[in-house]
Write a structure and sequence with these properties.
About 40% of the residues lie in helices and about 15% in strands. It folds into four domains: about 10-110 and about 515-535 and about 590-665, Rossmann fold, CATH 3.40.50; about 200-495, no CATH class; about 670-745, no CATH class; about 750-919, no CATH class. It starts with 19 loop residues before the first helix and ends in a 20-residue tail after the last helix. The strands form nine sheets. It has a seven-stranded mixed beta sheet, sandwiched between helices. Strands 3, 4, 11, 12 and 17 form a five-stranded antiparallel beta sheet that branches. By secondary structure, it is of the alpha+beta class. Bound molecules: S-adenosylmethionine. InterPro entries: DNA_methylase_N6_adenine_CS (IPR002052), SAM-dependent_MTases_sf (IPR029063). This is Adenine-specific DNA methylase.
Amino acid sequence: MTPRTSLGEADAPADMASRLIDRWFPCAVVDKAIKTPAGSGRSEKALFTWFASRPIAQARAAVLATLLPDDNGLQQDVEAAVRSGDPSALARLRKVISEQYPAGRPVVLDVFSGRGIIPLEAARLGITAVGTDLSPVATLGGRLLTDYPLRDWSAEPPLPFVDALDTDQTLFADQEPRLLRDVRTVLAEVGQRVADKVASLFPKDATGSFPWAYLWAVTIPCDQCKRPFPLVGNTTLRHPYKKTKDSGQSFRFIVEDESWHVEIHDGVATQAPTFAAAPGKKGKSAHCLFCGHVHGLDAVKAKGAIGEFQDALVAVADGGDTPKKEWRSPRVDEIAAAEGVVLGEQEPFGGLTAVPSERIPSGNQDTIRASAYGYSTYGDLMNARQTIHFVETVRTIREVREELLVAGYSENYANVLTAYAAANLPRKLRRATRGAKLLSHGESNGTKQNRVQVGDVFSDESKQSFNFDYLEAGPGGGPGTWSSVSTSGVNALKKVLEESPFGIPGRIRKASAVALPFRDGTVDAVVTDPPYYNMIDYSDASDLFHVWLKRCLYDVLPELFDDDGLQDKSEEIIVKRGGTTDEHRTRDFYEQMLSRAFTEARRVLRSDGHLVVVFGHSDPDAWLRLLGALQEAGFVVTSSWPSRSENASTGVASIKVTVTIGCRVAPSTLSVATAAQVDREVTEAVKAACREWDREDLALTDQLMASYGPAMAVYGRYSTVLKPDGTRADLDRYLTLARAAVRDATALRLDELPLETFDATTRFAVFWQRLYARAVVPKGEARFQAQADNLRLEDLRGPLLTESKAGFRLRLDQPTQISPRSSTFETVRAMAAAWDAGGTEAVAETMATAERNPNDAHLWAVVAEINRQLPDSDQIAKALAAIVRNAGTIGNLVYRAAETGLGKDGQLTLPETTEEIYP
Ligand SMILES: C[S@@+](CC[C@H](N)C(=O)[O-])C[C@H]1O[C@@H](n2cnc3c(N)ncnc32)[C@H](O)[C@@H]1O
């Protein structure tokens, strides 16, 4: 493949060893591989919950291209390694890499290592892989993935838990890696012991098994009748499924005098939920079961704030180990056992209260939704029985560790097994707390397969949801239980071990990227994936994990978990959404800290080392900050390689591309250039890259983002770019210019009329529609888009774009007024609305009011363009299609209107020319 963007031969800093990434990257192979299970890294990611991760294929490509010499003959092996992890290709490439670094193995550092995907790829290549992350939770995840699986544990004594080994799964135990077998056994042992300890709180079902799960609801006292009633958002328990003749199950509340109870019935729900939107209303409200009084959400929240929420057991599901979950009303003994739990005095873990009493920092209502409902500590996020269940689990993990030490295990290995057991806590937490709701797959008409599960607490990458009705998994089997999350963890570890047949353990440490614990000039390459600007609140979202992990590991991995309180956020490089007025994690903070981090990276890099940054964000401001930070730290971009590695999220226009950016330390001898010259070079470089991207079908939205790479590569060649007035041209100018160049490169024509010949507003609107159709576009993206057309977003907001919290959407409805000064785009919108209101005559009148000639080629080109971009079923598309069909009649009516002076108070004159000419 030809390079997508790179400096020319003459531009490459001469004193630095040339690497593959300078001229080539396996973009197309990465694009494909990340969609496969192996290339996506799904199994690696399942080992530990963390909120951002690179696909394995992209991490592998970045590491290989950064370390391998610039030799075309290697490209095939790199592609094979990225595509399928081809062992013989990898072995050959390993050899080439080691020959490049005669002093020994190269050192690759990831300064934002998260769960360690990039270091893992380096470690698998037998390279010295080092990862650092500020978060102790992420650091633990990195070790579980990149360090412990690559160590040799064969000298450890056999496990002391003989019973747990006596299962079918371990029939071939001897052939399994030691770590895998021991982790599985320890997890099973912990699960069994905890079940025994909490058995009295979870009375068994008729067959002597633990029920699978329990549906709870929060109750509030009614403002009117004062009686407490439960809040449920759904009364379906299991959808029907015709194929298996399963009629499904639902529940209804039965009210008797002062109390309520639940009746489970077959079939679809017959009773409305008590927490739902009233007919015709948007927001949900609580409806009293007894007197029907309606409580708005604020009134409900206020009750939470003053401690009036109570937890009540609603229903119980049996059949944890079977596919079908059978619901029933809770028995009296079950209600007593569940609701009667009193947390009381619990023996602390070292200096920590057994129940997490750490307060949820304010400003987290968006990240930890329960904190908006009066739940103020991490311990509050579960009901009392769930809390005891977790406390006992932590105690048991620690107790098992003690026994491993007594049995002669090295402290190191006992700690590693304890760490894997502790890592089951986040996996289980994801299916616990008040955010875990009952997930009933299927349809109420019985046409889809029905399945019941515990929902994931994380509603998106890092937001913990909250529900008044939530599910609690019991100590037995079934989705969301300890045994179920153990199985998924063990399977993930198995795959990691299988796919790491060689390699050396990565070294993963907790450290801030702005103060790295390494000596100057000791690292051969920094390959990293910096925080995603405002997308993920890493530490706020993972503090729930942190509070439980530290209770388990405070003295086991003290270097990670012996700190007081929550995770330290003072140096966290993010832009915090929501937050409080004194929030320090602002945009400027992000840029300054990122610049400090890159400066640190530069310090530890050898002088001929490479910095490779993997980044993707839909907000151009995020790019501006990232690229500004790189420049500030003294790096120049030398190449950039887009890959389609992110999933599109529906509804909001999101960019799917991630760019792998090759950087070098800026040479000391850069020249000064004029803005005119650099403008020209940037435009040419971007247009050349667009031709390549077009061939590879890179979407237009993705090209906009990818264009920053070539622009930066040109801009970085000069120490200063001077504008005619003697001031410096900044980065912002070139990102805007890059976007404009993408638009120009697409040579958008409407009915053979070049886009440049339309008025600016129409140009903007047409390009926007091509890019995003009817999706909501994030605000930053919209601002840059307007900038590329020299328009101000402030002027477009309202007349052209509707604004919502999520961003802007293009208006296609009727404009508030129409006049001869209206843009072509607005005139067409008015015509579509006029068709619906009054057919041909109304359209003609609109055209006449806008003083548009019936032969106005630009007008008809926009009519056709909007029509083409909309689905046939769209009302506006239908109107425009009808207008086209009736163009002749409309034209005659417009002329008649002109002749009779109808259009505009008898003042109408049609333009002389049929062409709009815009310079
Ligand atoms: C995009 S994620 C990295 C994900 C990683 N590549 C993976 O695949 O798991 C960015 C990481 O930067 C970390 N981070 C934020 N501020 C930091 C700082 N000052 N020093 C080090 N790491 C930091 C976050 O904790 C987060 O794990």
